[in-house]
Amino acid sequence: MARSEAPNESTLPKGIMLEKRVVKLVVAGPVNAGKSTLIRSVSDVPVLCTNEIACDDVAELKEYTTVAMDHGICYQQADAEIHLYGTPGQRRFDFMWEILAVGADGIVFLVDGSDPASIAEVSYIHDYFLRQSALPFVVGISRHDPASLSGNRAAIAGHLDIPAELVFACDPRSASESKALLHSLYERLVATA
């Protein structure tokens, strides 16, 4: 018996569509790492944001900050609808980290590669999430110096005690770089499914 290929939408009668797999990814990281920006750059639907005017030391970094979550949907994978849930970066909102992690398939950690405090904080956030469950993840370095990226990747990988292959340069303002980061995580999800 010949093995047939899986149907795709181009081989189905007009008007019939295949159901896409829904994938839930959490986008986590310190304040000002680029979580909201990444979601806005890749979302194919209007992004739901819960931004408020920043206060305390966060106001020195930016005018607005996420206080609950950001949500967007990306259709970049032919077989999947990727739902992105961005977390607040401040520890005082860590109860939202736990809520948003429920049912997640993977995590994107973002870190500001130009800020030593951000690198230290992503370690705390990384450990927090992985204590909850051992989800597949990748790390994106925003605001990095391209000339020293390999050293930066190695330093961040060493700091998190993870393989350097899980760490990528990612300008969250760039849809193509952000989608490449998401694709690398999606490939890990497919490989472990």
Walkthrough of the structure:
Strand 3 and strand 4 (80-86) form a beta hairpin. The protein has one domain (20-192): P-loop containing nucleotide triphosphate hydrolases (Rossmann fold, 3-Layer(aba) Sandwich). It starts with 20 loop residues before the first strand and ends with a helix. The relative contact order is 0.18. The chain has helices at residues 35-42, 94-101, 116-132, 149-160, 175-192, and strands at residues 21-28, 48-53, 64-74, 80-86, 106-112, 137-142, 167-169. Residues 1-7 have low confidence and may be disordered. Helix 1 packs across helix 5. The protein has 193 residues and is an alpha/beta fold. The chain contains five helices and seven strands. Strands 2-3-4-1-5-6-7 form a seven-stranded mixed β-sheet, sandwiched between helices. Helices cover 33% and strands 25% of the residues. It holds the Pfam family ATP_bind_1. This is GTP-binding protein. Belongs to the GPN-loop GTPase family. One of its GO terms (molecular function) is GTP binding.
Shape, principal axes of CA atoms: globular
CATH homologous superfamily caption: P-loop containing nucleotide triphosphate hydrolases
Could you give a short account of the major beta sheet?
A: 7 strands, mixed
Please, what is the average pLDDT?
Answer: 82
Protein name: GTP-binding protein
Keywords: GTP-binding, Hydrolase, Nucleotide-binding
Family: Belongs to the GPN-loop GTPase family.
GO molecular function, one term: GTP binding
